[in-house]
Amino acid sequence: MSAKVIDGKEFAANVRAKVAEHVARLKEENGITPGLAVVLVGEDPASEVYVRSKGKSTVEAGMNSYEHKLDADTSEADLLALIDKLNNDPAVHGILVQLPLPGHLNSDLVINSIDPAKDVDGFHISNVGLLGTGQKSMVPCTPLGCLMMLRDHHGSLSGLDAVVVGRSNIVGKPMAQLLLGDSCTVTIAHSRTKDLAEVCRRADILVAAVGRPEMIPGDWVKPGATVIDVGINRIERDGKKKLVGDVEYESCAAVAGAITPVPGGVGPMTIACLLANTLTACCRANGLAEPEGLTA
Q1: What PROSITE patterns does UniProt report for this protein, alphabetically (predicted)?
Q2: For the segment 267-278, what is each residue's pLDDT rounded down to a tens digit?
Q3: Residue 103 sits in the same domain as residue 158
Q4: Residue 217 sits in which domain range?
């Protein structure tokens, strides 16, 4: 069996096109332009690249992009004051504070100071609680992207056996909640799971989000299963640097029914879903119908 490759680049491009279409309609019919504010503290090179990419994608979708770059030694009080200002700015519908923050800043305090309705990362404790109890919330971007691709591939997910390998607050836990919401039978597995291989082998949907290069080999995959590889790991092989996921791609692709590649799978969906969340937040703030197919 040769797995169908789930092309995240193409899927993300379609999501961004849908977002841009809705944004254009909002402008024309309601005179409203969604706005996304991104806050970067310090000069982490990877974060700077990511923030630039977010800003470019926001503008391309027809939204307003507000970037706030603060010095690495910015005080917690100053950062919280900026967030309060953005919370009260009607032109800003989404707020994202780029992580990680410098060590002297309390990330939980900062994230939970964001208005939950503008928390387009879905990290605020209120959104976590709403998602966990099946209520309307802002949903973390990466799990949302995974869910969109799974729905597109399977149609209905009802009754499928799903295993999520990884229990992070950013991916593993919200991914499990989203799959439960679509009526999957869900297992959260992790490094201390007994007989992890056997747990993975029973999955119709296997989501790898553990952050360990090529941890899951093909003989852990149920024939015909859908494998969603969230991992992005930089390794060196044969003297060359390479990006790999949390699964052994070749051996898993030989067994699975469908699989996401790394790179080009889940990664592109994260920014696409950030734009979708900003659009959703804008619609909710203005009492307008939410865009179909862009939410959980």
Answers
A1: THF_DHG_CYH_1, THF_DHG_CYH_2
A2: 999 999 999 999
A3: no
A4: 141-268
